[in-house]
Amino acid sequence: MNLLAAYGFAVLIGIALLFQTALLFGAPWGHLTMGGAHQGVLPIAMRRVVAVSMLLLVFLALVVLTRANVVFPDLLGVARVLIWFVVAYCGLGVGLHIITPSYWERVLWLPHVVGLLSCSLLVALG
Prior knowledge:
4 helices; about 75% helix
């Protein structure tokens, strides 16, 4: 179950990364992210935020995959601690997606972050 949850987390992160890559390169989906504050193409400043977010998502995926002993076995001890940061981050994401004023963000991304939280918690407890 631990391994399946880790791969599930990685797939969900991959989907988010594809979406964010599209935003970074000018997809007109601003209403689907960041509280729906920007219609159409995100301004350059917000695209920089997307780029930083993408790096964070890659880091989260590596922590989960390391904790599940898929990659970087020498860092398993560190991953046992950092996995709780991932769980907390995903939990915060669930809360923020519950209260977002953006209907579409709630519909599209709330189930996604619930999946991330569930997978990361399974890996943390595994």
